[in-house]
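Could you help me review a protein record that somebody else here produced? My question to you is simply how this chain folds and whether the tokens agree. Thanks in advance; the entry in question is below:
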Amino acid sequence: MSRGAFDPGTECVARQDFNCRNKNEISLKKGDIVKILSNTYDPNWCSVEKMSDGKRGNVPTSSIQVRGGLHIHEMPWFYGNISREQAERLLKPRKVGLYLVRESTNYPGDYTLCVVSPADGKVEHYRIILSKNSKFTVDEEEYFTSLVDLIKHYERDADGLCTRLTQPLVKKQDMSLSSKIFKDTFQKEGWTFNIDDIVFEEKIGSGEFGEVYRGKCQGKDVAIKQLKDDTKAAQAFLAEASVMTTLHHPNLVILIGISFTKNSIVILTEYCSEGSLVEYLRTRGRAVITQAQQLRYAQDVSAAMCYLEQRGLIHRDLAARNVLLSQDLCAKVSDFGLAKDVEQDIGSGKFPVKWTAPEAIEKKEFSAKSDVWSFGILLWEIFSFGRNPYPRIPTDQVLTKVLANYRMDIPDNCPQNIYLLMKSCWEKDPRRRPSFEKIALHLKDPDRETNL
């Protein structure tokens, strides 16, 4: 590995144990998380800080690796363990360039790209070889670090295939996240922990997925989400964790890691000691929370949502209950709804109607602009000190009233310009709602005239 391989500030994980031999070095256990401080004069060593206890020292570069982001949410075309015949049935009607990827039945550990050929709509099956150095190739000439990169390449250029990949066959339900490739990828990129390294302390909540505990991992306070034994929930769980590996922002809850056991999945995130924003607003109220603090919470959330907007990611479940407060009262967005089965949620009564844009309820059209609508509701929650939206209106009547142009009144003592921002978020036409970039700029100086 060449000198300067790691940039200062990069987060890495120990890929193997290392025992220090002098006072300038520090010992590592496999799975320890470290931050790069600097590279040393010896290109084979670097200076790090261990995240669990703050100890600093030198370690060999060969003993650590950068924690890479996973992109499971970018693989809607992956169908897991299905047969050749199933793939061909799924690819009807036959549109040239329509494709999916499955696990190889003849070569366990490899994958198969199935694509509709220009020749009479026949389906061609290309073996994707997983090489010894964990790279992917079709022709053993060009190699890719991930399936996502390989697919993106053949979407740009046929490069020896019967046709360019033109359209993925997107699954209606994701039944492939339990595939071994996803578990292996979490491990390969440095996101897995041994369950024995996790200490469960008191239970702090329960939700759709299962129980939530406060605990410790490698000496660090963490929130622990433990999944109920349910396959569908497991898929949503892993998809959420996958997305979180790619995100780095001070106003988003940080993923620490994940642990796979025989009967459950455990996700570790940073522990936010002050709990949810909605409970904080309700229990402290006007006697404690100033208008300046309310504005700061709104600024924090808008900054996080602006970051997601820039990356083309949609939250789908933005509400004060899904914003957590750290010890220094920094607001952090959590609980991504990216993998939710929207249709099932609406039918089950679990769907957050009062926070959801009308086009998302009626047509299941989720976008950054539907998140903007939800942000307007969240703003109303902040400035009403955690009141439930649409007070005195039954949930089953909210959509009818909203479509008839009803909008909530201004909360008591809420600044007029903040209320005007809320109303701009509640425009019926999504195109007329402001972007999060504009919202964030407006909230930096709400007294200044801003064209939303």
Notes: The CA atoms of residues 383 and 445 lie 17 Å apart. The mean pLDDT is 87. The two ends are 50 Å apart (CA to CA).
